[in-house]
Design a protein that fits this description.
alpha+beta, about 20% strand
Length: about 200
């Protein structure tokens, strides 16, 4: 652990070799290093695939990381598709009004990720393209089959190999997270302490 800590201190000084949230942040670099060791990845490569929606928030990973973790563990997923995709000549815009893609991809297309293990088929089926509401990447409209495959791989990993993922978040999940509100009842010493802090100086 001491070696990881020292490495993280050095890693966080790598500037453009890292994402902005990793730069000069030894704590995040330590967390990335621990993940990289667990998954058998290069810490710098993993850092480039990481994402933080806002300062102080959790760090997520690009969807391709989930499938890479599975392959590293010897799990070779296969994919099949059901349903259709329709491309509309209608630009896609973000909630802020920025154009994401020139054309809109829509339809009931799904992706099923699966393997056969000990005579049993283990599969995960995505929602349809239209049912997936979080589509921040332009690839959802330019290359929807690839994005559905990433979604399916992530879902499969969560369902069948949670021991590998260990609670890792995807970029889409991190983008949509809301701050947690503390609803613990204030009782006893905690209530007295809070009331003392709230009193004017």
């Amino acid at each position: 652990l001491h070696q990881y800590v020292e490495f993280a201190k050095l890693m966080c000084q790598a500037g453009e070799m890292l994402q902005s949230h990793d730069q000069r942040n030894p704590s995040i670099c330590l967390a990335l290093t621990m993940r990289a060791v667990h998954w058998g990845f290069d810490p710098y490569a993993l850092a480039l695939e990481s994402f933080q929606a806002k300062q102080g928030g959790p760090v997520g990973y690009q969807a391709k990381v989930f499938t890479a973790v599975l392959r590293k563990a010897g799990v070779k997923l296969r994919y099949r598709y059901e349903g259709e995709i329709t491309k509309l000549d209608k630009p896609v815009k973000s909630s802020k009004g920025n154009e994401i893609a020139k054309r809109t991809a829509t339809g009931n297309r799904k992706c099923i990720a699966y393997i056969e293990e000990d005579g049993e088929v283990l599969e995960y089926e995505t929602p349809s393209l239209d049912e997936i509401t979080i589509k921040n990447s332009p690839l959802w409209h330019n290359d929807p089959d690839q994005q559905l495959a990433y979604y399916a791989g992530r879902g499969w990993a969560r369902r069948y190999r949670s021991d590998l993922m260990m609670g890792a978040y995807s970029e889409d999940e991190v983008r949509e997270m809301r701050p947690m509100r503390d609803v613990t009842p204030r009782t006893g010493f905690q209530r007295l302490a809070d009331e003392a802090r709230e009193k004017p100086g």
